[in-house]
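Our preliminary data section would be incomplete without showing what the modeling component actually yields. Below, a chain of 261 amino acids is followed by its predicted structure, encoded as C-alpha cells that our downstream tools consume directly.
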Amino acid sequence: MTRYVRFAGIHGPRWGVHDPDTNLVAPIDGAPWDGPASLPEPPLALTGLALLPPVTPTKIVCVGRNYREHAAELGNPLPSEPLLFLKPPSALLAPGGAIELPPESNRVEHEAELGLVIGRRVRRATADEVARTGAIFGATCVDDVTARDLQKTDVQFTRAKGFDTFCPAGPALVEGLHLADLFVALRVNGAVRQNGRTRDMVFSAETLVAFISGVMTLEPGDLIATGTPAGVGPLIPGDLVEVEVEGIGVLTNQVIAAASR
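Predicted structure:
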C-alpha cells in the first residue's frame, strides 16, 4: 500500500508520499494518479504540515442507503439500484478543519463513509472493467455531514448536503487497499457512534463506479462517498468528530456554529 497526503506548500498545494514508520513525507511532482516522479527534496515531517483534502474533484458523488442497517434506521427500503446525489467541491473540508453548523438547520448529523478516488477517466464501464483497469485509484475517509431536517423538508438533497464544510475528507489517500471488507467507524468526543464494515454495503465499490459512470463521466480525482453504516446522529458545537476507516487512518474535525449572515 502507498499513502499519499496533500498539504499546503509555500507556493500552493502539494502532494507527497507518507511513510507511517518514520512519519516523513517525500514530496512528489503532481497528483498521485498522474504517475508523478519523486522530487530531489528532503522529506518533510508530517507533524509540521497543514494537511488538505487528499482529492481535487470536479464533482463529489454520494450514495444513499448503501448499508442495510442504515436504511432500516431511517425507515427506508433498500434501493434496487444506487441512489445518487451530489455535493459541491466547495463542501470539502481539510483534516483538522471546523465543521460549521449553519443557522438554517436545527439538526446536523454525521455520516462516516469510505471515499473512493477515481484514477482515470471512466465512462459507461462495467464493474469488471472498473476492477481490471484500476479506475479506483485509492480510498480516503469521508464524513457526509447532513442537515437532516432540511433533507426531510426539501425532499431532494442539494441544500441538506451542500453547505460549506459538509464534506470533510482525509487524512490520506491510500492506494492498494482491499475495499471489500474494511471497518468504518465514527466517534464523537471519544464515544463510538458508528461501527460497520464495507462487506455490508448493498452495492460494491466497483458496482458503484460502474453505475455512476453510466450517468456521468468520472474524471481523475473525483470523489465517491459510498454510503454510511448505522448509527448516524446529531452534532453540536464543541463536538470532536473522528472518522476512521481501516488502513487509512483517522479524520478529525471540530464542530462549531457558523456565523449568522
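The mean pLDDT is 96. The helical segments are 68-73, 127-133, 148-154, 158-162, 205-213. Preliminary results of this kind motivate Aim 1 of the renewal.
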